[in-house]
């Protein structure tokens, strides 16, 4: 599905248009995934619903990714618009397109995490979590900073995992 603005910008969920070099370049320098390997960026996109934001000539200038069961819940990740294209309402429009996607309608709950964009998302109708005491996390935040740790991340299939027999 592709949405087009009057000025020629496009949002698309077409995976074939994604510029993984551009997405990886941005995400690997972001505060939320510093050093993330390119193969992880590609696997994350493959396991979710990625959306690209494109200028009229087709170059990718933004991204968002949603992980969802497409029935009850969605988690929004990795949202960005390159600085040179900010201030034009593109972030709001990207979010409007994501939220309007037919596969993401009727969901009971959406979730995102952000360190610095609370006001942006609040303007779009998001609320700060009214019950943070209900949420839990397993967070390996430093995983991408040390590539050797990628092979040593906890494997939940080993000792302590439920017996699958």
UniProtKB/TrEMBL annotation:
Organism domain of life: Bacteria
Q: Which UniProt keywords apply?
A: Transferase
Q: Which Gene3D superfamilies match?
A: 3.40.630.30
Under the heading InterPro entries, the entry gives:
Acetyltransferase_Butenolide (IPR053144), Acyl_CoA_acyltransferase (IPR016181), GNAT_dom (IPR000182)
MF-aspect GO terms: acyltransferase activity, transferring groups other than amino-acyl groups
Q: Which stretches make up the N-acetyltransferase domain?
A: 1-149
Database matches in PANTHER family:
FAMILY N-ACETYLTRANSFERASE, PUTATIVE (AFU_ORTHOLOGUE AFUA_6G03350)-RELATED
Q: What is this protein called?
A: GNAT family N-acetyltransferase
């Amino acid at each position: 599905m592709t949405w087009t603005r009057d000025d020629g910008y496009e949002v698309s969920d077409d995976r074939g248009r994604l510029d993984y070099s551009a997405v990886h370049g941005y995400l690997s320098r972001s505060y939320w995934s510093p050093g993330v390997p390119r193969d992880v960026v590609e696997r994350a996109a493959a396991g979710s619903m990625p959306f690209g934001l494109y200028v009229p000539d087709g170059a990718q200038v933004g991204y968002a990714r949603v992980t969802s069961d497409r029935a009850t819940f969605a988690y929004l990740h990795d949202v960005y618009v390159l600085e040179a294209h900010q201030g034009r309402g593109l972030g709001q429009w990207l979010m409007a397109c994501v939220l309007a996607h037919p596969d993401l309608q009727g969901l009971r709950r959406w979730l995102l995490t952000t360190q610095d964009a609370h006001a942006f998302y609040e303007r779009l109708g998001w609320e700060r979590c009214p019950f943070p005491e209900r949420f839990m996390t397993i967070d390996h935040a430093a995983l991408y900073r040390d590539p050797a740790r990628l092979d040593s991340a906890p494997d939940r299939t080993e000792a302590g995992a439920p017996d699958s027999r």
